[in-house]
Amino acid sequence: MDKVEYNSLGLKRLEDTISFTWNNINIKVKKYFPISDIYDVIMITLQKSYEDGIYNPIKLDEYLILNLVYMFSNIEFSEEDREDEDKLFDELQSSGFIDKFLSVVDKRTYDDLCNTIDTLVSKKESYANTFAGTIKKLIEDMSINSEEIQKIVDNFDKEKFKEVIDFATAANGGREIN
């Protein structure tokens, strides 16, 4: 098979936009979402929607849409605009802006984003229910740093631990503890 050099293909990333008018203002939305930006949108959405040990489905939707608008439209938001994202989302949603925005976003891309987020939420929640996930969460919740962990390891008395195991074995009628 003859090889072809990649550079000879002349490929370039699509930089086109789709436009719509909102209150006599031309809003532009990128047609193509670069993979690094998609990754950022997903990770920020997951991070901001994680509350009290679970992913809040309302916040997942809110932050996905807000992050898409932030990253893929020509709208510039000030820090003040973004200060209360719930209020910002409500304004965009209730005015019909989000529906108009999503109508120009490629449906397959949007569906893929939603499916990827659902998959990651499922995997993260499954991991959180494993022993390793529980230990990781415990360490994070306890705010134990590596120096404190090392102190615990250094001060661990193997002899006392053996005495506890021996006592438990004796209390179990001499049968091994599983």
Structure, described:
This protein has 178 residues and is mainly alpha-helical. The chain has helices at 35-49, 57-72, 79-82, 85-94, 97-104, 107-128, 131-142, 146-154, 158-171, and strands at 17-22, 25-30, 50-51, 54-55. The strands form two sheets. The chain has a two-stranded antiparallel sheet. Strands 3-4 form a two-stranded antiparallel ribbon. The chain is elongated, with a radius of gyration of 26 Å. The model has no long low-confidence stretch (mean pLDDT 86).
Quick tags:
4 strands; 2 domains; two-stranded antiparallel sheet; two-stranded antiparallel ribbon; mainly alpha; 62% helix; 178 residues; single chain
Question: How are the elements arranged and paired?
Answer:
Layout: E1 17-22, E2 25-30, H1 35-49, E3 50-51, E4 54-55, H2 57-72, H3 79-82, H4 85-94, H5 97-104, H6 107-128, H7 131-142, H8 146-154, H9 158-171
Antiparallel strand pairs: 1-2, 3-4
Brief rundown of the structure:
This protein is mostly helical and 178 residues long. 62% of the residues lie in helices and 9% in strands.
Compute the average pLDDT: 86
Give the distance, in angstroms, between the N- and C-terminal Cα atoms: 60 Å
Poorly predicted tracts of residues: none
Number of strands: 4
Q: How helix-rich are the residues, as a percent range?
A: 55-70%
Work out the radius of gyration: 26 Å
Global morphology: elongated
Strand content: 5-15%
Instruction: Report the total helices.
Output: 9
Instruction: Write down the domain tally.
Output: 2
Structural class: mainly alpha
Q: What characterizes the major β-sheet?
A: 2 strands, antiparallel
Order of the strands making up the biggest sheet: 1-2
List the helices and strands in order.
Answer: EEHEEHHHHHHHH
